[in-house]
Each structure stands twice: as structure tokens, then as C-alpha cells.
Write a structure and sequence with these properties.
Helix content: 55-70%
Number of helices: 6
Structural class: mainly alpha
Low-confidence stretches: 1-12
Strand content: under 5%
Shape: globular
Order of helices and strands: HHHHHH
Mean pLDDT: 82
Largest sheet: none
């Protein structure tokens, strides 16, 4: 294992970190590939796992061997299947997965913008944490600005 893979809270029974929109976009992209049947599903799952693990490392996270591993991705693919089909198949869809599928269907351009940003996070120079922190600060500031300008608007 590389030096980014450490034993941490994953082995103490704590839950995996919540997924974000960028991870969900990569998972949906992989799910859509499985539906085209151009590559074996197991290869797509392996690639998605590697992408999400690289993204985490590039964002400065410390991960272990369980973080977004192939077994977990296979399980989450089933959840994405439910989200895409609009019904429980084997694993119920998460709210985030339903939202990313809805975005894909109703605002495809925005979905692909998010997917491209996610792919940049995967390909970014490792430990480029400052760049990602800046993006987080920008998002937080814009969210605050929206709240400040429209404090009574419901989300």
C-alpha cells in the first residue's frame, strides 16, 4: 500500500464518509458505462474505485484500504441503479444519487460541468490541497453571499 493508505477510523466501526456531488457524478458516469456494456462491469468498478481514491488523496484526505474500495463501489452502483431506474432494485437509492440522476436528465450541461471538475480532481497533482481549499472557500463565500442577499429565501 502507498503512504496515503493508513489504518484509521474505518477499522474502528465508524461509517464511511458521506459522498459528495463530484463522487456521485463519477459513479453515475461509471454506471452509465456499465449500461452500454462496452467493458466488463468489474473493470469499470475498479476504475471508479481508483478514481475516487485518487480524488480523495488529491484533496488531502488520508484513506485506508476500505475507503471507496471495489466492494463498496459495487454496492453503491446498485444504489445508483435504483436512482437511475426510479425504483428500488437491490439497494435503495440515496438522496444524493437521485439528485445527480435528476441533474443528468434535466440539466445535462451542468452535470457534465460537475463531471469535468470531478475528473480534474482525480487527475490533479497529488496533495494539491491548497487549490481544493480555495474552491471550498469560494463555494462557502458564494453560499454566504446568497444567504446574506436573500436571507428569507428557502432552499
Amino acid at each position: 500500500m502507498d503512504n496515503h493508505v493508513l489504518k484509521n477510523e474505518m477499522n474502528t466501526g465508524k461509517k464511511q464518509p458521506k459522498w459528495d456531488i463530484y463522487e456521485a457524478a463519477i459513479l453515475l458516469d461509471g454506471y452509465l458505462e456499465t449500461q452500454q456494456k462496452c467493458q466488463p462491469r468489474i473493470q469499470i468498478i475498479k476504475r471508479v474505485s481508483e478514481q475516487l481514491r485518487n480524488m480523495a488523496i488529491n484533496r488531502g484526505k488520508v484513506i485506508d484500504e476500505v475507503y471507496r474500495n471495489e466492494n463498496g463501489i459495487s454496492y453503491q452502483m446498485q444504489s445508483m441503479d435504483s436512482a437511475y431506474k426510479g425504483e428500488n432494485v437491490y439497494v435503495p437509492a440515496t438522496r444524493l444519487f437521485k439528485e445527480v440522476v435528476e441533474l443528468y436528465r434535466t440539466d445535462t450541461e451542468r452535470y457534465f460541468d460537475i463531471l469535468e471538475e470531478a475528473k480534474r480532481m482525480v487527475a490533479a497533482k497529488q496533495n494539491n490541497k491548497e487549490a481544493f481549499l480555495w474552491e471550498d472557500y469560494k463555494k462557502d463565500f458564494l453560499a454566504f453571499l446568497g444567504w446574506y442577499l436573500y436571507p428569507y429565501k428557502k432552499s
